[in-house]
Structures are given as structure tokens and as C-alpha cells.
User: Which sequence fits this backbone?
């Protein structure tokens, strides 16, 4: 092995470790650290890694692993659970972005394909960054988290068809529709053969490997399946990424899918970090400095355009203004799959070097700006949603879309959120002969409750007009179980203002949420971690008293 390759790999990992750790201290995404370390050690700055072809080859393995794990993780059940934000919101966001950029390209360059290609690249968000932003702020189960994850899943599913479209329309063929038909035909043959192999060969192969009870052999076999199917796809004129995705689908329905995923994830994360480092190496800092105005202009236009379209898509799904803005900004950056599409365009020679550098710089711009401005944007979204005109519009929208005609009830419990936590409360109330009015943002939960005979309506807690439909004026208590702190605070504050005498119980997932909910007006805040720890301690104490002579002395 040449020492140059080992040097490049060592420098890349060392620089990434130091810069990513520094970004973590600044509470920024580590992906920004990977990108910046690639820029820093690349040929256009320090030149510590002059020949990056070997690192790029390993980075391509990272993309293959990413697509493979995407296929393994692909869940029809998850799509079904998030079908409204995924199907409706994702369709509006993806195709709206592509249509808008195509129109801009036609007006500026008189070239529709440039706009179509730019739309495909711009429409893809970074699933990694979306998840990190939501996890860091505890927003995975909030309304804006639901919206962002639904749209992100839709994008991930559509990346493979988009690769086929770009391959057909971006090639040298004078008949793109014929080329598209040819590509779809090859893909159909490949998918059919893969389906047959997954039913006949893959199960037998994985069973045989599992019987050896060798952990390392199972891991090697999973990687071999991934790379082998990817190479088969490439030999048929399809992309490596498509082959890796299909390989993931082949094993996703097997009993070994969770084992394979847990074994592959460390490899994927390692190679994926190399992928972002190599992207940073490809950025020509001198070119960016000479065209800085153009980069900032197109980067800002792309961010605003995508934020607007994503927010409108979430509004169309029934989310509030605040949640739609947060989900829109969360999705506004351009993600890792965009680099896959960009590499495909470069391979097909449909991109000039200047346009390639412009795309790289714009993507880098969005990946840095969105995580950096995420926290201040949350305050901006809350401020915007409180503007009088927007509040009045949202009240009218809710009254038109979600007004519920029903009998007048009294002495009932208003239950906000009917997840696992809320279902325990609902069961307890009905066990004691009480009645609940349930509000939940999951349409499937609402339909299930209504079929079971419960009083349930669909809506978001951040919309205060909904308290009229919940008949707050005759309720005896309000139980707030949603994890969204700002939505819960607003609902508690409004309920306390309208009914100073009512009992309000609220749930806190984190200790930092207790005091804000108390200040908003909650009579009691249940801190779930403390309650869980208390129950565990009581169970342990009981066991020790029964079995240990030293307890209680």
C-alpha cells in the first residue's frame, strides 16, 4: 500500500476529529466540521492532501453504505404513519422546488434541463442534519418534527427515480424519452431479478451464514451482499447507489435486517464522514473567493425558495404557522443525496467545471447556515406566528377546516396528546367512569379513537382557537401530555387565562421544561424521568427488603 494513501487517510481523519470536536463545542453539527476540514486540508488551501482520488473512492463506499442502510431501514409502516406529511407535503415540496427552479432557469438561461437538474439537487434535504437538529432540541415527536421527517422520508424514497430521470434526460441521446424507457426497462429487469434473488437465494445464503454463529463472518457477508448487488447494477449501466438501495431492500424483510443494520452502521458512519470530507476537498476556495457574490446570492435564493415551499407544503398538511416555519427551515439545507446527483451529473458531463463549483459552494453554504441559525430561527418562528394578522388567519383556517359539531358536555377531562403517555391517562379516566375530549395531531390515532366511541378531534395544540371545540368552559381538568414545550406552554397559558379555577396537569420530558410550564399556569408538572426513577427505586427497595438482611438496619 502506498504511503501517500495512508497519509491522506490519516490527515483526513485527524483534521476531521479536531474540527468536528470544535464544532461540537460550539453546539454545531459535526457534518459542518467534516466539510470544513475537507476544505482546509484540500488542494486549494493547505494542500495537505493533494491527490484525493483514494479518499474519494472510499467516500463512494460511504454513499453505497448510506443507500444500503436506507434500503434496510425502509419501512412501509413508517410511511403509513407519516403518510399525510410524506405524500402531500413531500409531493408539494419536491415537485414545487423542481418546477420553481426550472422556471427560473428558463427565464435566466433559456435552458429547462439546467433548472430541472438544479431543482433535483436543491430539493433534497439532509436527513442526517434534520435528525440531529430535532434530536438536539427534543423535537423528534413535535408537530414540526413530524412534518420534517415525513417530507424527508418522501425525498429519500424519490432519490432513486430522480437518478433514473437525470440519467435519461442528461445523456447524449437525441431521444430522451427512448433513453428513459431503456433505463426504466433495465431497472425493471434488475429489480425483478433482485426480487427473485431475495426470495430464493438471499434467505438461504443468510441462513447458512447465521448457522455459523460467527459475528465477523455475518458482517463480512452483509457487506459482500451490498457491494455485490451494487456492482451488478453498475454492470447493467445503472448506478452503484441504486444497486446498494436494492440490496438493502432485499434484506429489509428478513429476520436478520436489524442485525445487519447494527453491524453496518459503524462502517457507514465512518465512510460517510469521509464522503463529507472529500466533498470539502473538491471545493476550490480560490474560485469561491472570485465568485463570492454569486455564491451568496444563489445560496440565499435557494434557502429562501426552499424555506417558502417547504413551509407552504406543511401548511397544506394542516400544521400551524409556527410548526410549518420550523419544519421548512429544518428542511431548507441541501443534503447528502444532492452530492450523489451532482456526481452523476459530473460523470455524464452535463455540468461544466464552473457550474459544478457553484453547486458545491451553494450546498456548502446551506449546510453551514441552517444548523448555525436553527436556534435563533425558532424564536423568529414563534414571533412570526404571534403577529395579529397571521393569528386571525390561522383562527379562521382552523374554524373552517376543523370545526366540530357535537353535543355539549361538562365535567370532562381535556386530554392534549394521545400517545403512549396519553393513552394511560385516557384509560384511567374511562375506568373511573369519566369522559375525555382528546386532541391529537396523528390522524390515524384520531380515527381509531372515534371508531372506538371516544370524543377525539384532529388538530395542533399551538392553535388556541381549538379550546372552543374542546369545550374548555365546562371542563373539569386539562391534561397536557405533548412533548412540544412551546405548544404546551401556549395552551396552558390560554387555558389558565380563560379558566383560572381549572386543574391543569402537564408532562415534562426534560427538567428544563418544568419551570416554564409552571410559570405558564400548570398546577402540577409530572417529570417523567423522575417518576420513572422513583418507581424503579421503590421496586428495588421492595426486592432488597424481602431478600437482604442488611436493608433497613
Assistant:
Amino acid at each position: 500500500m502506498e504511503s501517500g494513501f495512508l497519509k491522506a487517510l490519516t490527515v483526513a481523519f485527524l483534521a476531521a476529529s479536531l474540527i468536528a470536536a470544535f464544532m461540537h463545542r460550539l453546539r454545531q453539527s459535526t457534518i459542518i466540521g467534516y466539510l470544513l476540514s475537507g476544505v482546509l486540508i484540500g488542494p486549494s488551501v493547505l494542500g495537505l492532501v493533494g491527490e484525493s482520488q483514494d479518499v474519494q473512492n472510499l467516500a463512494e463506499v460511504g454513499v453505497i453504505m448510506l443507500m444500503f442502510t436506507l434500503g434496510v431501514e425502509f419501512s412501509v409502516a413508517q410511511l403509513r404513519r407519516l403518510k399525510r406529511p410524506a405524500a402531500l407535503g413531500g409531493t408539494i415540496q419536491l415537485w414545487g422546488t423542481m418546477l420553481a427552479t426550472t422556471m427560473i432557469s428558463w427565464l435566466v438561461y433559456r435552458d429547462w434541463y439546467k433548472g430541472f437538474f438544479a431543482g433535483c439537487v436543491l430539493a433534497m434535504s439532509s436527513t442526517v442534519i434534520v435528525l440531529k437538529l430535532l434530536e438536539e432540541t427534543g423535537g423528534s415527536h413535535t408537530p414540526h418534527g413530524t412534518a420534517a421527517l415525513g417530507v424527508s422520508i418522501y425525498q429519500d424514497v424519490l432519490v432513486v427515480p430522480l437518478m433514473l430521470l437525470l440519467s435519461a434526460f442528461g445523456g447524449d441521446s437525441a431521444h430522451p424519452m427512448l433513453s428513459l424507457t431503456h433505463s426504466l426497462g433495465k431497472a425493471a429487469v434488475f429489480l425483478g431479478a433482485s426480487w427473485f434473488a431475495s426470495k430464493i437465494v438471499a434467505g438461504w445464503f443468510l441462513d447458512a451464514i447465521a448457522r455459523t454463529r460467527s459475528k465477523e463472518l455475518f458482517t463480512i457477508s452483509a457487506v459482500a451482499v451490498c457491494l455485490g448487488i451494487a456492482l451488478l447494477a453498475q454492470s447493467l449501466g445503472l448506478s452503484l447507489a441504486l444497486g446498494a438501495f436494492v440490496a438493502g431492500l432485499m434484506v429489509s424483510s428478513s429476520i436478520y435486517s436489524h442485525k445487519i443494520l447494527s453491524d453496518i452502521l459503524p462502517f457507514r458512519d465512518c465512510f460517510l464522514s469521509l464522503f463529507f470530507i472529500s466533498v470539502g476537498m473538491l471545493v476550490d476556495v480560490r474560485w469561491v473567493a472570485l465568485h463570492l457574490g454569486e455564491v451568496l446570492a444563489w445560496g440565499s435564493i435557494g434557502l429562501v425558495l426552499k424555506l417558502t415551499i417547504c413551509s407552504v407544503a406543511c401548511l397544506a398538511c394542516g400544521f400551524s404557522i409556527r410548526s410549518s416555519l420550523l419544519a421548512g427551515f429544518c428542511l431548507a439545507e441541501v443534503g447528502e443525496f444532492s452530492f450523489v446527483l451532482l456526481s452523476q451529473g459530473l460523470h455524464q458531463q452535463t455540468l461544466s467545471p464552473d457550474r459544478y463549483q457553484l453547486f458545491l459552494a451553494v450546498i456548502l453554504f446551506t449546510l453551514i447556515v441552517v444548523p448555525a441559525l436553527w436556534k435563533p430561527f425558532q424564536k423568529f418562528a414563534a414571533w412570526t406566528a404571534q403577529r395579529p394578522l397571521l393569528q386571525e388567519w390561522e383562527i379562521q383556517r382552523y374554524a373552517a377546516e376543523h370545526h366540530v359539531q357535537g353535543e355539549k358536555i361538562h365535567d370532562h377531562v381535556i386530554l392534549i396528546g394521545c400517545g403512549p403517555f396519553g393513552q394511560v391517562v385516557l384509560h384511567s379516566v374511562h375506568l373511573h367512569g369519566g369522559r375525555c375530549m382528546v386532541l391529537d395531531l396523528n390522524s390515524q390515532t384520531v380515527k381509531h379513537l372515534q371508531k372506538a366511541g371516544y370524543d377525539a378531534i384532529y388538530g395542533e395544540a399551538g392553535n388556541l382557537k381549538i379550546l372552543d371545540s374542546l369545550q374548555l368552559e365546562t371542563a373539569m381538568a386539562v391534561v397536557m401530555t405533548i412533548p412540544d414545550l412551546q405548544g404546551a406552554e401556549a395552551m396552558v397559558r390560554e387555558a389558565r387565562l380563560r379558566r383560572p379555577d381549572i386543574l391543569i396537569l402537564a408532562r415534562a420530558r426534560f427538567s428544563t421544561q418544568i419551570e416554564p410550564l409552571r410559570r405558564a399556569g400548570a398546577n402540577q408538572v409530572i417529570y417523567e424521568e423522575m417518576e420513572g426513577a422513583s418507581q424503579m427505586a421503590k421496586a428495588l427497595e421492595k426486592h432488597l427488603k424481602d431478600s437482604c438482611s442488611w436493608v433497613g438496619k
User: Anything to note?
Assistant: The beta strands are 413-416, 436-440, 455-458, 477-480, 503-508, 524-527. The mean pLDDT is 78. The chain has two domains: 53-283+302-352, 403-539. The two ends are 67 Å apart (CA to CA).
